[in-house]
Each structure stands twice: as structure tokens, then as C-alpha cells.
Amino acid sequence: MKKMLVLSIVMILLLSGCNRVDDYHIDNGVDEMGEQLLTKAEFLQKVSEHEEVLGVTVADFDDMDVNYFIIDLGLSESWFHDGYISGSLNFRAFFEDHIIGLPLRNIDSYRPTELRIVDSTDSEFEEFVAEYIRRLGDEANVTRHNTSMPAHYSFEDDIRRAEVTIFPTADIEYFIENQRWEFVVPPGYVRMPGAGFSHLQRPIFISQNGKFFVIFYNGPFTESVVRTFIEIYD
């Protein structure tokens, strides 16, 4: 009840005038099925009613562009209810994926400004990956994972853990045509089709010679880890 009251007060203050743009009732458009997406006000109301099930609180969205979050996950009323509230999807995991894809302090200058596709050989790829992992090994414990992806690693130290996959940029056209990946550059992220009509959004960075790119799957990750990838052929 208290949470509902606080949310109602905030809504009233925002609607009362006071030199602020009312972003609580912006029309966020429709999803891929033509269903109307939730407004910010509707979304936060539903979060306040289902915090335990969703694994988040209204306060988790205080510093977030909520309308962008709604659009990114394609949150219509039916999809939000069937997929996250009553369904089996882990809303907290999608929430964290979204945050990872947002611009992060100290690494904006490394974000790609264009989508470069440059041919490379298998030996060049192997040498690049080996050098990147060697340099990361000076900072963190690195583990290679046996997956269908050619170079999937996790690294961790006392304060961070992240997973990355490295690809040749020559593979980008394949991912676009066959996997329906969307490369958005700038600001530098890839959107991968997820369950239903949602998408997983993850940051990418491209090597100096344009031959390789890295996807960060989870974090947090630091400026030095990004800079290491960028500067191998600097």
C-alpha cells in the first residue's frame, strides 16, 4: 500500500505542471504484433504490484530511461503478463541484460562509430584472440568455454566477472542474414532475437584494424578490458 501511495504521489506531482516534460504517458508505439506497448505509468504500476515475481522494484528504475526499456523489451500488456508475470521468463535477467547494453561511463570514447567489415584469415583470428586473452590474463583469471562459438571466454577478478565472444567482422553479414542480428552503430550494440518478441541487447567493440569484434554478454566490465581489445593493433 505504501509503495502504491508513493507512486501515486509521484504521478500527481509530474502531472501537476512544474516545468517537467510528462514522460509517464508518452505513446511508446506498438510491438511486432501490432499490440500497444505500455506507457511508463502503466509499466511502473505493474512493477509495483508484482515486485516479488519480477525480481525488481520500482526504485530500480529511478535512473533509467523507462520508455526506452519498454520499447527495447517490447512490453505490451499481454506480453508483460504472459511472459514475465505469469510466464516462465526471468524478468530480472532481461533487466540486467538491458543495463549492460546501455552506455557505460569511461568507455563511450571506445564505442564504434561505423560498422567495419574487413576480411581476415583463421590464423589472424587465432593470433588476435590469443593476444587478447594473454593481456587479460595479466589482470584476471581467464576461462575458455566449450561452446559452438569459436572464442567464448569468461574472466574474473576480485571485483568483476564478464563473458565475451570474439568474432571476425567478416561474419557480420552472416549474422545479419541468417541469425537476424541487428548491429546498431553508433552507439555500438547488437540486438539478438530473444524469446517471443523481446531482444537481447549487448555492447560490441571493434578492433583497430576492423577485422574483429567482441560481444560482452554480462558484466560488469571495466574500461581497461575494453581498451585492451581496442588497442591490440593500435
3D architecture notes:
This protein is of the alpha+beta class and 234 residues long. The chain folds into 2 domains: 2-101, no CATH class; 108-231, no CATH class. Helices cover 38% and strands 17% of the residues. The chain is built from 9 helices and 7 strands, in the order αααααααβββαββββα. The chain has a 7-stranded antiparallel sheet with strand order 1-2-3-7-6-5-4, sandwiched between helices. β5 (189-193) and β6 form a beta hairpin. α1 runs antiparallel to α2. It is elongated. It starts with a helix and ends with a helix. Mean pLDDT is 79; it is low at 1-21.
How do the strands and helices of this protein lay out in sequence?
Elements: H1 2-15, H2 40-49, H3 51-54, H4 66-73, H5 77-85, H6 91-101, H7 122-137, E1 141-144, E2 152-156, E3 161-168, H8 172-178, E4 182-184, E5 189-193, E6 199-206, E7 212-218, H9 223-231
Antiparallel strand pairs: 1-2, 2-3, 3-7, 4-5, 5-6, 6-7
